[in-house]
Amino acid sequence: MNNTHHNITIIVADITTLHVDAIVNAANETLLGGGGVDGAIHRAAGPELLEECRGLGGCATGEAKITAGCRLPARYIIHTVGPVWHGGGRHEAARLAAAYANSLRLAAAHHVRSIAFPCISTGIYGYPAKEAATIALNTVRDTLPQCPSIETVIFCCFSEEDAEIYRGMCSWTA
Ligand code: AR6
Asked: How far apart (Å, rounded) are the C-alpha atoms in residues 126 and 173?
């Protein structure tokens, strides 16, 4: 795999503060807001985000939809829905991979050059952090060749502990 044209970074930050073309939201199927990173994004983006989301008709698990960034520094928000963890026997891994891959493809369709992901499904939805990080890293690596506009992918962890998991797993990042 040749990733020399991509800049992959792992940081600890509040994703709502990032100056990137797109941030990814770990939403639920209603797309009408919630807790965790979803709540933080809606608070920071302002009520116009909820208005735009109302017109999207929800989002199935593993799929992705796009809105403006509204009051965020990011131009776009890609809303995706990761799986709820039920122990691993309900296609959670495939659904989490689909959430990452479909978010990247949608971003590329909008000519996004820089994108930041939170640790999808690992909070309220209960996905084990290490297993989720493996899927996040492998899926991004495998999907980037289909996404020529994307130059920079940021894994935006919310804890140093999560960032350590990512750093320990990926030898191919910057
Ligand atoms: N910036 C970056 N990461 C964050 C932030 C932030 N501001 N806030 C939390 N995280 P979660 P899920 C991390 O629970 O598990 C919502 O109610 C958090 O520490 O936000 O996919 C939705 O509406 C964790 O590592 O999302 C859904 O109902 C990661 O973001 C449900 O939660 C994901 O945790 C989705 O659950």
From this structure: 26
